[in-house]
């Protein structure tokens, strides 16, 4: 497993590889770890992502389809003239016409795929920027949940906005679940007692944030492994929260 430093990340081209999806899960997790630790790393990721999207958008605006249509029109005009003077060339011209139609369809499909990819990248960039702003906001509190006795290596981090109660969860390490099981996030509140904040459905996403229900005041947080077949739950990690 490669453990990157801040300098290696910026100078080694890892940011561009991460944006283009060329890093492994462990490398992506390392990039995101450094982004959470250093705002300038997150800013460099946002800048590089914006640059790549701009280049991608310029490629989409090239007049490829217009050139194809003009070429097709010229071929059709030439075909009409040749048919008048040479009927024997009809089969060849028809074949050329079909080839151009196939090229046009393929270019249309590629253009649609490129536009969908650009929309996906733009949406991801916007979501990543919003999440980064939330994680690094002064009013955002980090709450670390440690593993219980039977799962000492388990760990998750919950981010809570002190003003609005908005909450998001990042998985650091959770044990593998049996088939059909899932994780549940619970808060113990003074008014309602146990309150379900959200569920974590496998497969686990270590490179993403899970959105939880809003909660402002609670005494403790815990993660449990739930088996819907038996309705039995097992505590995995927890923490008491000071006021």
Structural class: alpha+beta
Q: From N to C, what is the helix and strand string?
A: HHHHHHEEEEEEEE
Low-confidence stretches: none
Q: Mind describing the biggest β-sheet? A: 8 strands, antiparallel
Q: How many alpha or pi helices?
A: 6
How much is the average pLDDT? 85
CATH topology of the largest domain: Immunoglobulin-like
What distance separates the N and C termini?
A: 39 Å
Q: How many domains comprise the coordinates? A: 3
User: What share of the residues lie within helices?
Assistant: 40-55%
The proportion of strand residues reads 15-25%
CATH architecture label name of the largest domain = Sandwich
Q: In CATH's first tier, which class of the largest domain applies?
A: Mainly Beta
Q: Which of globular, elongated, flat, extended, rod-shaped describes the shape? A: elongated
Kindly provide the radius of gyration, computed on alpha-carbon positions and rounded to a whole number of angstroms. 27 Å
> How many strands?
8
| Major beta sheet, strand line-up | 5-4-7-8-1-2-3-6
What topology does this entry show?
Elements: H1 6-11, H2 14-19, H3 25-37, H4 39-60, H5 64-85, H6 90-135, E1 140-147, E2 155-161, E3 167-173, E4 182-189, E5 193-200, E6 210-212, E7 220-227, E8 232-240
Helix pairs in contact: 3-4, 4-6, 5-6
């Amino acid at each position: 497993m490669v453990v990157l430093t801040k300098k290696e990340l910026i100078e080694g081209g890892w940011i561009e590889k991460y944006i283009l999806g060329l890093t492994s899960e462990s490398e992506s997790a390392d990039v995101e770890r450094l982004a959470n630790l250093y705002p300038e790393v997150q800013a460099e990721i946002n800048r590089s992502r914006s640059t790549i999207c701009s280049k991608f958008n310029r490629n989409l605006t090239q007049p490829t389809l217009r050139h194809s249509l003009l070429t097709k029109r010229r071929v059709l005009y030439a075909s009409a003239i040749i048919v008048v003077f040479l009927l024997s060339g009809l089969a060849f011209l028809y074949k050329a016409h079909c080839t151009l139609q196939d090229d046009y369809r393929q270019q249309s499909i590629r253009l649609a795929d490129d536009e969908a990819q650009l929309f996906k990248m733009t949406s991801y960039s916007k979501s990543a920027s919003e999440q980064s702003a939330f994680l690094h906001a002064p009013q955002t509190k980090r709450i670390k949940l440690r593993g219980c006795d039977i799962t000492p290596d388990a760990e998750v981090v919950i981010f809570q906005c002190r003003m609005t109660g908005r909450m998001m969860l990042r998985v650091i390490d959770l044990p593998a679940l049996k088939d059909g099981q899932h994780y549940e996030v619970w808060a113990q509140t003074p008014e309602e007692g146990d309150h379900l904040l959200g569920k974590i459905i496998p497969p686990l996403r270590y490179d993403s944030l899970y959105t939880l229900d809003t909660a402002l005041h609670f005494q403790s947080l815990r993660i449990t492994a739930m088996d819907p077949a038996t309705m039995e739950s097992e505590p995995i990690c927890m923490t008491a929260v000071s006021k």
